[in-house]
């Protein structure tokens, strides 16, 4: 019997910046990726950049359950990167939390 995927949590995180800060913002956001992928409960963690507005980034990440999301959010690494990233953002991080409904 397959696991109940309705417990999974999928996040869309939007972040925006000014053009002058785009490369530094990209570098900082990328610092989230590998550590998050090693966290218990991480299904995927990917950075995307909007095609028609390269100052907009999305982190798309999936977690086995809400506890894994909470543990990720409390990870000291996230707060450490946000110290440098936060002041460079013009919008976000805007978090949209989703539940999987398809098989």
Characterization of this structure:
The protein is 34% helix and 35% strand. It contains 3 helices and 4 strands, in the order βαββααβ. Helix 1 runs antiparallel to helix 3. The chain has helices at residues 22-38, 66-73, 76-85, and strands at residues 9-17, 42-49, 56-63, 89-99. The mean pLDDT is 94. A hairpin with a 6-residue loop joins strand 2 (42-49) and strand 3 (56-63). It has a 4-stranded antiparallel sheet. The radius of gyration is 14 Å and the shape is globular. The chain is an alpha+beta fold and 103 residues long.
List keywords for this structure.
alpha+beta, 103 residues, 4 strands, 35% strand
DSSP E strands, number: 4
End-to-end distance? 12 Å
- In terms of per-residue confidence, which ranges show pLDDT below 50 for 5 or more consecutive residues? none
Report the biggest beta sheet as strand number plus sense, adding barrel if it closes. Answer: 4 strands, antiparallel
Radius of gyration: 14 Å
Residue share in β-strands: 25-35%
**Helical segment tally?**
3
Structural class: alpha+beta
Average per-residue pLDDT, rounded, comes to 94
Succession of helices and strands: EHEEHHE
* Shape by Cα distribution: globular
Q: What fraction, in percent, of the residue positions are helical?
A: 25-40%
Strand order of the largest sheet: 2-3-1-4
